[in-house]
Amino acid sequence: SDHSLQYPRSPADMDWASYYPAYAVNKEIEMTEGESHDHDQQQPAPTPHGPISKQVEIADIGCGYGGLLFALAPKFPETLILGMEIRTAVTEYVQEKVRALRTQHLSTNSYQNASCIRANTMKFLPNFFKKGQLSKIFLCFPDPHFKQRKHKARIVSYTLNSEYAYVLKPGGVVYTITDVEDLHKWMVGHLERHPSFERLNEEEEKSDECVEIMRMETEEGKKVTRNGGNKYVACFRRIEDPPWP
Ligand code: SAM
């Protein structure tokens, strides 16, 4: 259950600097409880808190073990990317890996743009992101919830699509991929029906490097490749809202 999950009241209330310390606005570091002022070289640097100088632009929803996150980070070094994952242990694994990669690449500052947060993305997504903040949302191999009565747990629905439309900027893209044909049809159907989205055609899909990264780099994508399964891709562009009458 998500009783222990915490949500910011608004995107401005998020402690973004603790996720992207290299982009912290307040270089003055407040210590959190348990952190020591007289840290030496052995100790990890204390975490800054508060706002950051950029905003997250790419969200990987249900990021799992972060394969996509770690593949995208060096491709989009100027863009902040956030993995969102509901399972505590999996989130911690990704956060640990982010820390390790940052330490390994201190001289180039790589992976400072990638982070992971524990969240139930079916709830309060607009508490994390402002209207029109994101340019890309990835929905990679979401849980299929095969049984009819479980379909309401799928992360594509008319209501959730309205939230994706809210946080995406016009021209932004929702990327979907799955190995379950029925779920693919479900996602395509729901996104096509939504007035804020239009599907990318094959040419557009082919020319978008993120499609290939998403096909090859997520853990589930690799598993499907090993098992020789199909991967169904569909991408949808956020269209401009029509002007008010
Ligand atoms: N995207 C990854 C990949 O392609 O390898 C992981 C796919 S895995 C089948 C689905 C992931 O979504 C799981 O890690 C699961 O914990 C996560 N998940 C399911 N529902 C979620 C929710 N409401 N909010 C955040 N994450 C969720």
From TrEMBL:
**Principal localization?**
nucleus
Reactions catalysed, semicolon-separated, are: guanosine(46) in tRNA + S-adenosyl-L-methionine = N(7)-methylguanosine(46) in tRNA + S-adenosyl-L-homocysteine
InterPro entries reported in the protein's UniProt record: SAM-dependent_MTases_sf, Trm8_euk, tRNA_(Gua-N-7)_MeTrfase_Trmb
Protease among keywords: no
Q: Pathway it acts in?
A: tRNA modification; N(7)-methylguanine-tRNA biosynthesis
State where S-adenosyl-L-methionine binds. G62, E85, I86, N120, T121, C140, T218, E219, E220
Q: Where is this region: Disordered?
A: 32-53
> What keywords would UniProt list here?
Methyltransferase, Nucleus, RNA-binding, S-adenosyl-L-methionine, Transferase, tRNA processing, tRNA-binding
Matching entries from Pfam families are given as: Methyltransf_4
NCBIfam families, A to Z: tRNA (guanosine(46)-N7)-methyltransferase TrmB
Family of this protein: Belongs to the class I-like SAM-binding methyltransferase superfamily. TrmB family.
Q: How does it assemble?
A: Forms a complex with TRM82.
**This chain belongs to which protein, by name?**
tRNA (guanine-N(7)-)-methyltransferase
Upper lineage ranks? Eukaryota, Fungi, Dikarya, Ascomycota, Pezizomycotina
